Amino acid sequence: MHYITTLNLVVNNIKTEKKMSDNDLEKIRLKKAEMLVKAQLMPTEIVKIHSAEEFNKLTQDFSDKVIIIDFWAVWCSPCMMFAPIFEKIQKERYQDFIFVKVNVDEVGSIAQNYRITGIPTTLFIKDNKVIHKIVGAVNEDYMNRILEKLKSFA
Fold first, then answer.
1. CB–CB of 73/119 below 8 Å?
2. Is residue 76 flagged as an active site residue?
3. Are 49 and 58 in contact, with CB atoms under 8 Å apart?
4. Under a CB-based contact definition with an 8 Å cutoff, are residues 45 and 55 in contact?
5. Phi, psi of 124 (to 5 degrees)
């Protein structure tokens, strides 16, 4: 009798373990499906931010992605020189990163939150934390080197 009780306990444990592993598999499937949907929804163009709410939604929706933010202004000559470089790199790397432009005159509160004191400034954030910062206009080669280093974060 004791043997049968022990055998039943072992069988029940195996069933429980199987259910747990099925649960784990289902969680993994759901996570993969979520990642695929998110990848399909990822912006393929530069996102131009017009409000703090819009920015907050973007950073929440894509907190697991590296978001590259170009802080700029219309009157800023170095910003105008950097703009075509930012656009070109976005066209080449939109699958790996989300590219965002924030006009500091239009949405100054975002620049203040990140303590932007000079423009152009390019911030690289993930999980709403700054992982890299560039102040000033840089060339395409420099940006590509930075992006290669940050690709492991993507």
1. yes
2. yes
3. yes
4. no
5. -115, 115
Give the pTM. Answer: 0.73
Single-letter amino acid code for the residue at 40: Q
Residues in the chain: 154
Task: Quick: pLDDT tens for 5-34.
Answer: 444 444 454 444 455 677 777 777 766 666
**Half-sphere exposure for 84 (CA within 13 Å, toward CB):** 3
Q: What one-character-per-residue DSSP string does 43-89 give? A: -SSPEEE-SHHHHHHHHHHTTTS-EEEEEE-TT-HHHHHHHHHHHHH
DSSP at 36:
H
**What are all long-range contacts of 59-63, with beta carbons under 8 Å and residues at least 24 apart?**
59/125, 59/128, 62/38, 62/98, 63/126, 63/127, 63/128
Active-site annotation holder among 79, 107, 119, 125: 79
Annotated catalytic residue within 49, 58, 76, 125: 76
Residue with tokens 């005159």: 105
What is the 3 state secondary structure string of 78-125?
HHHHHHHHHHHHHHHHCCCCEEEEEECCCCHHHHHHCCCCCCCEEEEE
